[in-house]
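Reminder to self: tokens first, then the designed residues, so the page reads top to bottom the way the pipeline ran.
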């Protein structure tokens, strides 16, 4: 009996041991992902006569970080027609091409939510003003002309107060931030969950308006707070749900300051990035990190257009776009319909 029991135990241990191993050996850790494995993620594509093919996409590295600042020299076009066995390189001599400036085709809206509850006003208002001013300056003092920032603040009232509406006017934003003072709020409590719900609605509205105007679009909601929701006007689950079901084109960031921060809440309300610090002097670094991320996100979108040599009658053609830089490479394949295509200037930007 003891012998059989021993065999059963050994068999059980062996099953557990082997079931915990992958077919290839040890499981691959997420930390083993190669940042040089770029991905081209197509957002939209279309064709127009006489022979233009347009692909709107973004590029991320193997760690899902945005890859910005690429030029048309970093991309290669390959086509596969009905008479081709494999993809063939399309040279610049055969097909004019261009990457359009983001401001021509892309709109990015940033919703900045600032906690101006009593604890912030009494202890950290000046640090917040310095950090918020750095944030807007860092985000707009670049060649990126596609971003507008709206700044809103919340306290214990069931209202999301507008400090300044969506604008790319940097002096106006700075002036509004500098105007925040000790007397701005009449309720020292914190309606954090209400601010998230209302701020997300503003981002959704901006996104819809941009798309309706014919632009590709994205948005970000950045929430700063020095504590937890104290007003209890809204349920935590409702705020979490709003973030979870929001458009995939909206990124959520949170910045926490002080020892009363609930990191679980910060993570849930800022799935893109949730940062926290106990040091008010370090707050500016948190805001800078997020502004850098948003800038890179906005500039990781590209509208690549070219004049294909394919003509009417060629039907559905394969298209492959390769990207290669000193930091990484990747590719994506799709198709386009050349029906109606003919000779002529295809009208690149």
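Designed residues (349 positions):
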């Amino acid at each position: 009996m003891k012998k059989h029991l021993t065999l059963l135990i050994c068999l059980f241990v062996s099953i557990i041991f082997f079931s915990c191993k992958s077919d290839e050996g040890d499981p691959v850790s997420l930390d083993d992902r190669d940042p040089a494995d770029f991905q081209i993620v197509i957002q939209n594509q279309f064709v127009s006569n006489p022979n233009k093919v347009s692909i709107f996409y973004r590029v991320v590295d193997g760690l899902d970080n945005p890859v910005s600042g690429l030029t048309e020299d970093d991309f290669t076009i390959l086509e596969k027609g009905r008479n081709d066995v494999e993809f063939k390189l399309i040279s610049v001599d055969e097909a004019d091409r261009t990457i359009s400036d983001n401001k021509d085709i892309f709109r990015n809206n940033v919703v900045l939510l600032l906690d101006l509850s009593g604890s912030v006003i009494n202890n950290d208002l000046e640090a917040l003003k310095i950090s918020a001013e750095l944030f807007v300056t860092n985000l707009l003092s670049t060649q990126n002309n596609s971003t507008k920032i709206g700044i809103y603040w919340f306290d214990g009232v069931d209202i999301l107060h507008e400090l300044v509406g969506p604008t790319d006017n940097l002096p106006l934003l700075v002036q509004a931030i500098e105007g925040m003072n000790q007397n701005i709020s009449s309720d020292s409590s914190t309606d954090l969950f209400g601010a998230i719900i209302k701020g997300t609605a503003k981002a959704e509205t901006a996104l819809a308006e941009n798309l309706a105007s014919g632009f590709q679009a994205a948005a970000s909601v950045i929430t700063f707070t020095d504590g937890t929701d104290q007003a209890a006007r809204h349920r935590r689950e409702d705020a979490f749900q709003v973030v979870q079901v929001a458009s995939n084109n909206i990124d959520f960031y949170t910045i926490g300051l002080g020892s009363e921060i609930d990191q679980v809440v910060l993570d849930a309300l800022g799935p893109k990035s949730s940062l926290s610090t106990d040091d008010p002097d370090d707050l500016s670094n948190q805001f800078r990190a997020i502004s850098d991320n948003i800038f890179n996100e906005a500039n990781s979108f590209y509208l690549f257009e070219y004049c294909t040599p394919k003509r009417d009658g060629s039907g559905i053609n394969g298209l492959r776009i390769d990207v290669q830089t000193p930091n990484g490479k990747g590719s994506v394949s799709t198709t386009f319909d050349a029906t109606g295509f003919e000779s002529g200037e295809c009208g690149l930007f």
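The CA atoms of residues 131 and 285 lie 8 Å apart.
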